[in-house]
């Protein structure tokens, strides 16, 4: 599998490191309009460097690309890659509008290539075990979920384009909140169908830095979501209350299970979890391309996460709850 990396920033390095651990996978080329960044990454891994993705697609023998460019570029780059017959693993968020997601899905179908979306949470050991326990019914049916995430969201905390709406498509919701929406829908085992939300921002910011939302999943479960971008210490936690107990999944404390007065640690949090998740995510994508099957996280799922993020913005603007169209309704288009 000859991979091209589109974008040579922070997350591209995690994909390049993942590729280096997999047999029969090599990063053949890297492109970035910051040619020096592409050159530096390419030099480290013995790949070719380009400043433009079209030039890379046309002059290199590639099988697939990993798209790690700014959010609003995910759709046009994915469509270009599909037209060149390249499988695509695109970073989260899949795109910044539902219509862009649909264009990507259609292009990949039309040109017969696979489309994977980088919701890496699906490969984190704690999240995998949480989903298994919930699916086993051991704790009874899940009743409610609370998802809370903080991240310092101000200029200097991350590359400048994250604060440019034309490239990022939004702020903390579209970037960090996408992981929270994914967790709500994946662990809750159903897409969100209704949302009531409020997003706001600290003075001087061009994108939202804070958000609260109540999601209703298709199976009736309710999820409360809190994203805070100012002041608070690091927090990344999901609590799921079920009929006979509860689970707490914390990036810092690992996975815990609670029944009556009993509290038991199930899995510690390990620093290596994220590297392992990026490796397993790429391994799944490569295998899906070779075997002609859907990647574990495909375009329709990625679209459902983006649809929920957009609904959060719409609900906030409207000051009321909004309904999110079902995948089945969209498929009838
Ligand atoms: N899965 C995760 O846990 C995770 C973590 C971090 C970032 N991300 C996602 O990865 C993507 C990149 O984030 P990042 O933190 O690496 O940002 P970054 O700014 O470090 O990297 C993005 C790179 O894309 C380049 N770029 C801009 N326009 C381009 C174009 N037309 N073609 C190719 N490259 C272009 C930029 O110059 C930059 O080097 C985003 O979608 C982000 O949300 C995911």
Automatic annotation (TrEMBL):
A Pfam family of this chain: GFO_IDH_MocA
UniProt-listed SUPFAM superfamilies: Glyceraldehyde-3-phosphate dehydrogenase-like, C-terminal domain (SSF55347), NAD(P)-binding Rossmann-fold domains (SSF51735)
Domain GFO/IDH/MocA-like oxidoreductase: start-end pairs: 129-248
InterPro entries: Gfo/Idh/MocA-like_OxRdtase_N, Gfo/Idh/MocA_Oxidoreductases, GFO_IDH_MocA-like_dom, NAD(P)-bd_dom_sf
Occurrences of domain Gfo/Idh/MocA-like oxidoreductase N-terminal (ranges): 2-119
Record-given protein name: Gfo/Idh/MocA family oxidoreductase
